[in-house]
Each structure stands twice: as C-alpha cells, then as structure tokens.
Amino acid sequence: MIIFVILCLIFSGEALSAQALSDNALQRIAFDQKLGATVSLDLPFRDENGKPVRLGNYFGKKPVILVLGYYGCPMLCTVVLNGMLGGLQDIKLQMGRDYEVVNISIDPHETPALAAAKKKSYVTRFGQPDAVNGWHFLTGDEPAIHQLAVQVGFNYAYDTTQHQYAHPSGLVILSPTGRISHYLSGVIFSSADLTQSLNDAAGARIGSPIEQIFLLCFHYSPISGKYSGIILGVVRVLGLAVLAALIAFIVGIRRRAGIAACKKVEP
Fold this sequence. Notes:
Distance between the termini: 49 Å
Radius of gyration: 22 Å
Structural class: alpha/beta
Largest sheet: 5 strands, mixed
CATH superfamily of the largest domain: Glutaredoxin
Strand order of the largest sheet: 5-4-3-8-9
Oligomer: single chain
Helix content: 25-40%
Mean pLDDT: 80
Number of domains: 2
C-alpha cells in the first residue's frame, strides 16, 4: 500500500487544478475486464512504416501483448512501457519468437513517423535481436481504434482543455486467436506475471479477473498529473500513520536503551 502511494506521488505536484473532465468522468476510465472475449482481427491500422495492416497480421501462432495508449502521452504511457520493458527483459521467452507486442495509439491524429520513432527508441533499449520484428507500433483511424478499445474494455476520454487523453494503465494479453486471456494493471509488471500470462495465452487458457490497482490512485488525474483532494487526504492520513509508527518505534528503542542503562548502573 505505502509503496504504491509513493509511486503515485512520483507523478504528483500540487493539488488538482480545474479541468474539463470531472471526477465522475475519470472514475469511468478503467478496464472493463472482458476475459474470454475475442477481438476483431480484421480491424485496419497502419504500421510504423505507414503500410496498411490488419490486426490479424500479428496473430495466428503466438500470444500477443496489446498496449493501448498514445505516443505523445507526456507521462503515463511512458511509465507503462518502461514497466513492461523492464519485466520482459527478465523473462526467458523471446519477443518475436515466442510472443508479439502490439502498441496501438488511441489518438487518430498520430502519424506512422511518430510510431516509428517510438519503436526505434524502445527496440534499441530492449536489446533483443528479434524485437524489431516482434514489437509493432500502429496508428489508425477513430472507428477501428474505438472498436478495439470497446472490445478489450479500455475506457478513455479526451480532455479538450489539456489536449490530452485520460486512460487506464495496463496490458491486455491475448491468445494467438485474439481471445482475451489476461489483464495486467498498473505500471510495474513482474517477470513472473508476464511469463504466466503469456504461457496461459499460448495455451488458450483464460485467467481470473484482477483487482485493478490503478483505482487506488485513480483520483490522480491522467490529464494534469496532479491529485484531487480525495487522494491527497488519503496520502496525508497514511503519511501521518507512518510518521506515528516511526515515532513510536524510536521512542520504544530509546526507552529500552534507557532501561538497559539503568540496569547497568544499579548496585
């Protein structure tokens, strides 16, 4: 709990300022888990070279990690990608050989050139030779983006004031036939969870619903990078609890030390 709150605070600055999206609207930005559902593999997109492709081009033989976000995202998408990259670097499965990763921008205005730049950066950082053929960065038009988002339960909204998208953080793991096998939420993904999810998806096994841990930090605004009064109140209470526990610990140590010193000087 404390560690996750600290993680939330990394993204915070001041209290949440006025924004176009209300707290009620932000509360709907989460994954509606649709385990066992199948995505439409004929949805049209463009790859990082601008070539028209179908979503099904990346399915058929291997499980797929689907990452929805957008390449111009100033904060959350980068954190999610970094977390995924860190977890994948520690697994034995090889990207391109054992599984595919498909990033799709939810912003219909983003270009293949932007997708290509993002791919170059992450493939270079990942460092595996097959990653260039196994990690795909796609763009598309609103109808295909919206349809795919609905099919995997990815709820998002555009803030016209900040000109940014609010969206949940996490990954969708699909079987080779496009069936939703697992959801992994948050921004840190363990190698064990990634390995288990990919192996389950490869075997067409469907996982269990997850507790969406981003709900804990949900009053952190994906738009402004700041917090509302609710999460700030929670953080203050937790901070005071930790401080009280620390003071009690220090007092306890000093008291025991004082008792021990008294015993030493007794005749």
